[in-house]
């Protein structure tokens, strides 16, 4: 029996926040009103002086949680190893930064930290004593373009398996389950100079159950002849590497990883008027998770905002509301 719950990553409403149309309080009330059970926050973006927040900031956060009844589910953490011009951070400096993030999460009542893709595996073991002390798990994001076939991701997951702790795991981003290439991406990029032939070719890959990332990998890291023929300009050549961030895995890829999955990002590019997301089958994935007894949150993460066409309104609020409504309807049908 599954117990799948809804959550919203506040990343989804970043344009509303950064352009001061909505405060953190406004956003928290909005996602609760639209039916979310939990909230996922980017402390660096929305909490002043993170990870060294003041007691006043922590108190205000807890006040909002109490007022809204939202569950503090996850904190998104980015390990910036390039703080200095002349060197990258040492291992000790990386660990110290992440310890501060763990301590901050505990202050916020959050028990899970999502580490951005490509965080090195060697952070896990030295962080575990702090994870245990503060009751905060760490989990690497498995993201399209940086998923299960990437050496850094594989190394992190192998270390998760080795330490075998409830405080180390993975977060799945559903960009690895695209069934179509997002049309908001192709519309935006075509407007700014990418040739239609590039997207026509990529769409043929999705039609046959593949994707650009897989095709290039299976071609020894080289572009297939059909892609070379589709590239019409140097602009196309610069843009094509960005198109491998939309993958088309079968859900069964998760079979061996289910014991280590702590959270899901339900990536969203475009909720359609008909109901489903244009490029992803949320209902199919929710059924898979139900059948595999997933007990956790699925977090709305809207990225279509960055592909808003010039002169058009950024539709963050509307898209978040639409996804929550659709996922809730699916869960009622699947979970009863």
UniProtKB/TrEMBL annotation:
Keywords: Isomerase. Gene3D superfamilies: Divalent-metal-dependent TIM barrel enzymes. It comes from the Bacteria. Residues 30-175 form the Xylose isomerase-like TIM barrel domain. Signal peptide: none annotated. GO terms for molecular function: isomerase activity. This is Sugar phosphate isomerase/epimerase. It comes from Candidatus Scybalocola faecigallinarum.
């Amino acid at each position: 029996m599954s117990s799948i719950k809804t959550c919203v990553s506040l990343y989804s409403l970043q344009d509303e926040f950064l352009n001061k149309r909505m405060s953190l309080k406004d956003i928290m009330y909005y996602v609760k009103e639209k039916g979310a059970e939990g909230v996922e926050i980017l402390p660096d973006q929305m909490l002043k002086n993170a990870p060294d927040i003041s007691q006043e900031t922590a108190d205000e956060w807890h006040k909002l949680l109490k007022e809204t009844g939202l569950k503090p589910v996850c904190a998104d953490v980015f390990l910036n190893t390039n703080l200095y011009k002349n060197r990258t951070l040492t291992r000790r400096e990386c660990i110290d930064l992440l310890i501060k993030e763990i301590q901050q999460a505990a202050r916020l009542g959050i028990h899970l930290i999502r580490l951005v893709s490509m965080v090195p595996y060697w952070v896990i073991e030295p962080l575990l004593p702090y994870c245990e002390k503060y009751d905060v798990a760490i989990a690497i994001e498995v993201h399209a373009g940086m998923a299960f076939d990437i050496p850094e991701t594989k190394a992190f997951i192998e270390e998760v398996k080795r330490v075998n702790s409830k405080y180390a795991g993975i977060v799945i981003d559903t960009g690895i389950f695209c069934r179509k290439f997002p049309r908001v991406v192709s519309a935006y990029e075509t407007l700014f100079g990418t040739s239609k032939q590039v997207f026509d070719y990529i769409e043929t890959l999705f039609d046959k159950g593949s994707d650009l990332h897989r095709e290039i990998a299976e071609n020894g890291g080289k572009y297939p002849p059909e892609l070379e023929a589709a590239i019409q300009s140097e602009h196309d050549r610069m843009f094509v590497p960005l198109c491998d961030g939309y993958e088309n895995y079968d859900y069964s890829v998760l079979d061996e990883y289910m014991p280590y999955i702590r959270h899901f990002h339900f990536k969203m590019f475009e909720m359609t008027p008909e109901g489903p997301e244009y490029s992803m089958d949320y209902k199919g994935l929710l059924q898979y998770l139900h059948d595999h007894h997933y007990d956790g949150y699925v977090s709305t993460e809207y990225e279509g905002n960055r592909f808003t066409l010039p002169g058009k309104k950024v539709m963050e609020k509307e898209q978040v509301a639409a996804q929550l409504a659709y996922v809730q309807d699916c869960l009622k049908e699947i979970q009863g």
